[in-house]
Amino acid sequence: ATPTALLVGTGRGAQLGVLIKGPQILESTRRVDTIVLDKTGTVTTGRMKLVQVVPASGEDTAALLRLAGALEDASEHPIAAAVAAAARDQLPPGAALPTVSSFGNSQGQGVFGVVDGRAVAAGRGRWLAEQWSAPLPPELLEAVTAAEAQGRTAVAVAVDGAARGVLVVSDTVKATSPAAVAALRRLGLSPVLLTGDNPRAARSVAAQVGIETVIADVSPAGKLAAVADLQRQGHVVAMVGDGVNDAAALAQADLGIAMGTGTDVAIQASDLTLVRGDLYAAVDAIRLSRRTLATIK
Ligand code: ADP
Ligand code: MG
């Protein structure tokens, strides 16, 4: 009887838009008491928009956006898509973004490369200072603080080893996220918001969806460590994520849940995939597994 009940569970899962890697997965959902949620692309749409460009004194706004946009065009990060789209939008008709002759990506930090023969890096301010010896001058630091105070994310841009401006991007919470978080609580799960983004943007999103526990400013390795810490405290942890930066944490979690709209690496690292890319599907998945287990017993 057991295998049949499990198969019914997985079949119904497919109907609900939940892909389950194997029937044995359902077992691990039973004791889950904590659910860790990635912010960008999981709780939020991840469809970011560029809302402001702050050039350093003497820098040209259009030129800065063109260099950063060309570089970000090669990255699959949601921030990158916003910057590249905005850069393309401001081009004259028929013009293309400048050529990128070398490209590198530092996970959870930013991107770097050579654009039009110039060394360009775009990402976290601290990373520019530490990795590229391009600390932000006071007026750019102020722009970063102001953006983050509004729950936004600031991308600092360095050209030829000096900070030349800040690009501000803004994201929105998915319409179903607040209801999904409330339903997860009703299932007895404590939600935790986990992000590589700045604490102010994280707090703003957490407040919008009703989450109190926030872990921000963490690297991909830090995401894994955060999940492992919760497990050491005796929690059984589910994690929902979508990015390359979530893969290690998803694999570490007792139940890894990937957004179907996310990256292949995240999907491969997970036990379940939510086809719709909607957090509410995680609620359906946990309900379904519990019901299926009840049938077996
Ligand atoms: P999240 O945990 O919210 O999905 P990430 O770990 O992917 O965020 O990124 C953490 C931070 O690193 C971002 O908020 C951003 O500041 C910076 N970052 C990462 N990738 C890029 C990129 N391609 N361009 C600019 N900044 C980036
Ligand atoms: Mg993400």
UniProtKB/TrEMBL annotation:
It is found in: Cell membrane. Belongs to the cation transport ATPase (P-type) (TC 3.A.3) family. Type IB subfamily. The lineage of its organism: Bacteria, Bacillati, Actinomycetota, Actinomycetes, Nakamurellales. This is Cation-transporting P-type ATPase B. It comes from the Bacteria.
